[in-house]
Amino acid sequence: MILNILKTLPWFILGSAIFAVPSILLIGALFAPVDVESSFLGTEWVAERFMNLDGILEDGQDPASATADFNYMFAWLNVNLLISTIVISLGWAIGSHFLNIDEPGKAKFFAITWIIVSGLLVGILLLVNYAILLWGDTFYAAQDITTASMNTMVLLTTIYYGLMHWLSCVLGTARQARSAVLFANQLPARNYL
Amino acid sequence: MKNFLIGIGGTGAKCIEHLVHSCSAGLGPDQLWVGMIDQDEANGNVNKTKILLNKYINLRDSLRNENKNDLSNSSNLLKTKITTNNDSVWLPLKGADPSLKEIVLFDALKDEVKGLLSCLYDPQEKEMNLSEGFRGRPNIGAAAMLATAANEDDPFWAQIYKAIDAAKGGEEVRIFIIGSIFGGTGASGFPNIARKIRAIQSEKGVLSNVNIGGALMLPYFDYEVPDDIGEGEIYAKPNQFLDQTKAALEYYSKLFESDKIFNQVYVAGWDPITRVSKFEVGGNTQFNSPLFVETYAALGALRFFCEDNKIQENQEIFHIGKNDSEDILWSDIPNVSVNLNSKDSLMNLVRFAFSYNWMYGPALKGSWSKIKKYSNEHWFKRLILSNTYEDTIKSSTIGHEKNQEIISSMHEYSQDILTWISDMNYSTVLESDQKMKLIYADFFSEYSPKNNSQKISLKEKLTGSDKKEFKNLFHDNENITLAKIMSNISYLGTNKDQKGLGVFMDTLFRSCR
Amino acid sequence: MTINFYNNNIELVDSEQFFLLGLIFKNLIFMRLKIKLLFIFFFSIFTSSAFSVCEPDFKMPEIPLVSEENKNLKNKVYVWYDASLSMSGFTKSQSEGVNLFGPLINELQRASQSLGTETSYNTFGSRFETIEEDRASLVTTAAFYTCTQSAQACASKDRINGINKVFNVAKKNTDSTVIIVTDLFLSTSETLAKNAERIKSPLREIFNDGKSIGVFGISSSYNGKISGIPTEGGEGYSSYSLATKRPFFIIVIGDGQDINFIKSKLEDNQKLQDSLAEDPESYKFTMITSNVVTKNLNTEKMISEKNLVNISSQSEDYKFKYLDNLPVYQFKTSEKDYEIKLKNSDFIVKGSNGVEKYKIEEHLWSLRDPSCKDKKKKWGKSTRENLVKTQISDDTLSLIFFEDTKLKWGYRWFMIANIYTEKNGSSSQDQFKSWDLDDSNAAEHLQSEPKFFKTLNLMNLVEMINDVANEEFKPTLVASIALNFELEK
Fold it and tell me: What pLDDT sits at residue C349?
């Protein structure tokens, strides 16, 4: 069983990496000081898109400083979302090997299990989003975004990490359980895949 | 190396059944010719073994077809190439109702010879119809066999002659004979067939390369003779088995001292003796369930054929028995060799049979329109679809007749394996204090000891809890779940040499390890 | 004696031993000193950093300094009696009604003695002059009002109140208290155009000096002739002798507390109390001032921890201190709004109409690092407005900070609120309306042969005083308060 898990893990890593790598690069760029040019991409667009600059100026605050705080918050948001997604997806990838698929045709019934796990992940993503952006008291930069921007961020991050979860499940699910994951059974079946 | 196995009598045939299943599990040599000797042509066990042999051979041929479906040489499933004659049974005495009197041409004998014969055989024995065997009379059987010439044109003996010729050509030949020391055909044929082979060897001037082994079965079963049997009826009397055995052992003791006919002899017996449920004089109703001790004979034969087994100069006699307790355990089953673990291989085979019979066989049976619902599952895509796909029809040929025949044959063969192991499991300890601790068969089979034609009925379908019981199939803790098998068939690599259904069959077989 | 230095044994002779011991001893002392100094150094750094100020650069509000004048010093009191003939009617007894003139004027005289260092008595109306105390003592007698001139002249003089002259004098004696006793029966011409300006002009100066004017109206029995009543159609004047009651007025110009002193003395008079018991309308008072604020609360540091009502002084990180007379409340809270309560009596002239409206000058700064440790983060001046609401009651002034504003948590905020008066409370002048008589209804009033005769152009004068007071109103800084707080979620 361990061997089978180890055979599938590289595919899981590949599926995760497609979304995780840009996320990590973004996080790195966000953690970098505002005045340092990021080799990945400028994160100004993030701040400009989501921040309520009028409110910041009204409080007499410097937009650059506010942007730095916002970037910091957004970076940590992505860290938490990334970790949550990896944990849940990895849990599914490993757990799928232990599903009781003991005969042909049984795998598709575990789609319910996968949906529940995915739903759990979506719930966690929303929880993390709102905990950081709305309910929590760790990042005061959360106040620098409007409600509409917050909702947009929640939606976009949930979609992004949801897709990451889906792709890592497609590639990382135990072969016998692929029918449980949406479109995973469309993958070619090879000795190595 | 050329290998020949001769099973004499009903016991020999039963032992061959065990051997065939062992060969299915990969315990046998690469090649083996099998023949049976029984005067009782219609013997139930002999017929059963004949059918089994045919199934095995046909199935193996279907799955070792380099062009279509090929398990390839690397697979242990149906590893041994078993061949046999069109009629795998040799009748020593041909004719409609042969008797000893006719065989020895009693009427044409001189009086003094007649007198001698009359001393040795009572009139009943001389007149006894031998078409249903020698009825526990090895004296009759021996005389009858000796009187029959080893005719090279006879298909049976032609194989022996070929073997000797091969030995002459430098190839090692191993011939193994299985028979009982008690009873009729086996007792009479065991030493005499061996002698005949040695005679042919001598005749052909072959001094070496011919090794003969034998499994000599001591009394291991008896039966209750019904009260309504006729006074003058000749039959194998169980109360005489031990006396016969004692006398026979004395004979063999002297034989082995004086005449090195056998290179290796495997002796096995059972205590307490198993009481079989039905008594028959002979014919197709003389049909006994497989018993555990017969596995010893089969494994002894496979050990003899194994290349790791080096035949010594001196004659070797091996005896085997189970442990002292009342329990029959997996540890009572000897390994064929250091590299061939009997327990693992047999467990593997039973798991394969189980999972194929109830899980995979039914999924693969039917037309493509029925089967294709599995077409998105990894195991199916990798093992079936990609190996049975035909570009011309842009579809899989799994639903085609030829493939369906193979699937059905394997399904049937799986049932034979399960029936064999279940019957052995129950019958060995029927009406005994002994306990069979090999497999749990209750959850997938039903045992009806009184139903001689079908003592074991396998369940048609298994419930969820039945499937869960699979992980407790063997008393030994080395159990795996059906889910593990499914996982294995998804992950185990395939052999590039394998083709068609051979890919799936071998992968499933290996997944059951 | 052997000393081990780094495992090298060194043997010393005695003298060297003593020298070494001395050296060691000296070194030890020096080391202890060094340790002490180090301790003090780090302690000071620590404590200074702990108590280092986390405030933006702000302009300190202009809090008035404590006045050096000795508040206990008494000033001169000028008492002006209206010597017009019609005033004599107050000195004669009347069978109907209670005469309050005599008792109250006596009371007034006594009070004025206590009020100032010296009292100067003067008359106006028929005669504009300073009088001796002997003559002043006759003010409650008819003889005081005798006119020695011709009847025509006396009658002519009687028509003109001439209070504007008194106001002129009052404006010159800004640090004195001026008390005027008069019937306040002004001719209409005195309240118009230039004459009105003659009244208003000194009043402006009076109010400008921060003085208040208290107007006492007392309804007393009357037995005399009231002259100068306009006839119908504006043709001349008539007089009336049948009134048994009419009000007289005491006008006090001075500090609010002096006015209140007079007021308390008058109101304590038993006769007045008895009269009030019978007729509550017999006494009216109003204080008119351009500046109802007696003092700036910061000057004498009258604002304390208790004024911030909804933040406990026991809470974490709470500090209250004065920064050059500016009270600074420093705290950490998750409360969204704060209330500071000030007692009106601490800063509003007692008896005045108080303040109707306040103006709050707000300055707000924010800092993204509440702990003030990140040197990169600076205070920023906020442009938010309308951060403070006022709630005015009879006793208190409540300042509600940030009721309608949502400040961001996780920030440190610094707020300075300067509270100014914007509009004084409405004068209680309307209470005098019932005693008012003007040209249009004077003839009618006369014809009705009233027992209680109203006062001509009373409201004109009162309104004039009020209007001037309002004109001279300048926003006064009541208090300046600073809040320096860390807002938690």
Answer: 84
- Secondary structure in 3-state letters for C243-257: CCEEEEEEEEEECHH
Is the pLDDT at B407 greater than 70? The verdict is yes
Find how far residue B434's CA is from the centre of its chain: 24
Q: Which domains does chain B have, with CATH numbers?
A: 2-18+28-49+78-321 (3.40.50), 345-511 (no CATH)
Distance from CA of A23 to the nearest CA of C (A): 27
Residue (of A168, A184, A24) closest to A87 by Cα position: A168
Q: List the structure tokens of B97.
A: 């109702």
- Closest A-chain CA to B361: A104
CA-nearest residue to A62 within chain C is C380
| C380 dihedral zone (left: phi>0; alpha: psi -120 to 50; beta) | beta
Question: Which residue from A3, A101, A104 is facing B374, i.e. has the nearest CB?
Answer: A104
A88 touches chain C (CB under 8 A): no
Alpha-carbon distance of C57 to A60, in angstroms, equals 13
Q: How many CB atoms lie within 10 A of CB C306?
A: 10
Q: Is B53 left (phi over 0), alpha (psi -120 to 50) or beta?
A: alpha
Confidence (pTM) = 0.77
Say if B and C touch: at least 3 Cβ pairs within 8 Å.
Answer: no
Looking at chain B, which residue has its C-alpha nearest residue A102? B483
Q: Which of C376, C379, C488 sits opposite A137 (nearest CB)?
A: C488
Chains that touch B (3 or more CB pairs under 8 A): A
In a domain, C61, yes or no: no
Q: Rounded to a whole number, what is the distance in Å from the CA of C411 to chain A's nearest CA?
A: 8
Residues C191 and C210 in one domain: yes
* B9-24 vs B44-63: helix crossing angle, rounded to 10: 20
Q: What is the DSSP letter of C66?
A: P
Would you say C237 and C230 are in contact if contact means Cβ atoms under 8 Å apart? yes
Task: Convert the pLDDT of each residue in C198-224 to its tens digit.
Answer: 899 999 999 988 888 999 999 999 999
| Count of Cβ atoms closer than 10 Å to residue B142 Cβ | 18
